[in-house]
Amino acid sequence: MTATDSHLLLRALVDELARCGMEHACTSPGSRNTPIVLMLAREQRLQTWSHVDERCAGFFALGAAKASGKPVAITCTSGTAAANLMPAVVEAHHAGIPLILLTADRPPELREIGAGQTIDQLKLYGDAVKWFFELGVQEATAERMRWIRSLACRAYWTALGGRPGPVHLNIALREPLLLEQPLGADEPGGGGRDSGEPWLRQQWPAVNVARTAHRDPNPSRAIVVAGELGADRDAGRGLAEAAAAAGVPLLADPLSGARSGGAAIAHWDLILRDPETAAALAPDVVYRIGELPTSKPLRSWLAGLDDAKHIHFAADERVSDPVSRDGTRLIRPLAASIAELSAYLHPDSSGWLDKWLRADSTVAHAIAEPLRGAGLSEPVVATALGQFLPPSATLFVGASMPIRDVEEFFPALNEPPRVLANRGANGIDGTVSSAFGVASVSDGPVVLLTGDVTLAHDLGGLLAARRTGLKLTIVLLNNDGGGIFNFLAVSRETDVFEQHVATPTGLDFSIAARLFGCAHEPVDDIDSFAGALMRSLRGKQTTIIEVTTERLANRALHAAVESAALAALRELDS
Length: 574
Ligand SMILES: Cc1ncc(C[n+]2csc(CCOP(=O)(O)OP(=O)(O)O)c2C)c(N)n1
Hints:
alpha/beta; six-stranded parallel β-sheet
């Protein structure tokens, strides 16, 4: 194998990824992966994003693939560089996001003899990848060129097909890594197919969406529970329209894009905390679609619905039923699920939807007072983002309290912004990088809502602001530590809690902003928040809008909101 062989093979591999439809790739620097970097960066059909830190590169690619629904390639050098992709690979595996990992490796004769930067990269990501393949060292014969073209397409279609996920190609490269002369246009075997077609185009059989026997002739009390639905922005809208047309209450996570229209119940998380209301609103049929929302009240309510039929429309065979309630699981592509579910929903005349809507407006009214009294709090920021963001925007939500507050407080809107989050493995890692990845494929502005520990965890992700030219609006809820832990029993273990669980960082984020070339705007009331948000949405620079809150006050406010909601619901019941 000469440098010419490896460059010819890699050029063909990248050519096929682009022919299949790939548009974005991420690189991280190194020596061994130089030939892969050259091919990706020089491929005109790809937009290639450079990252210093492989962990950031992995999450950036994840964000881009999540928002676009298309595979994104990542290359890194050998050794711990490849190991740094693991968190993003795990998230991609659990969330069903297509990635193609191109790790450079030493050739076999340099493995297991103490050569530098050499670790065992075979099956490095275990079962978290859909396919692992060791490319070995090959000569660029006509036969091998055909083979690599076919293999590149297989990697692309495997990442994208069925339940999407990551694919790992481990690429052994022997020195010399670089060419003396530029590569000519010719290729043994004549190159790829005419007219830009990929070597292999894979198609899946059309799925039979024939009606099944599960349709109830006249269920009067049905609800729809919608969780994250993936990259297709029309899916949530279609679902909301179908629920509104049928008068079926729609309990939608903002991540579904379906918290919208006349049947959307915005405050179901609070409504279901009142046992009497929850019992009165028990349905005969639960139609679930997408992932199950995080909300504990929702999950325990569903778990207790013994007498209801539970019908789950799922996009693939992966089980997403943590309460073991699915009675029927209908596996369909998303669009087919929505079409079929729409046909299941019956127009309602029993006042069923009205009962839900009354509870919803009762809660909305009741919680307004404690929220108003608390100034610019974490729940108010979650609510305000729903009110202020244009439909063209994307809100990327960090783990911990931000995702819970968005679930609990985000309003039902006619045209909601897209809401995304890393909910596959619920990590706080890679959040900034994921949001920048989303920005790389988005036309509208991207806003990240994050806690301070989450931001500190991926502070290096801010380097993308300087190095990629992409822009984020980062809304930082700084309660100096993990506020979520103040809601847990561990907060009573006072000797250990602050240092080892809450982990306040004490960071001055204005200095971090300056370091990475970002603007920083501290805000302390709703007007200054709205002003900073609008300026940042219009501007060109990444801005950290910092809202300072207190963990104990935040917990007390959540409790006051819940008490107000429950008191009002009880009054409604009586
Ligand atoms: C990679 C990873 N490490 C640890 C955790 C556990 N964890 C969940 S929330 C959290 C704290 C988050 O704090 P912050 O971002 O400030 O948000 P807040 O809780 O204040 O809303 C931690 C450490 C996790 N989910 N992922």
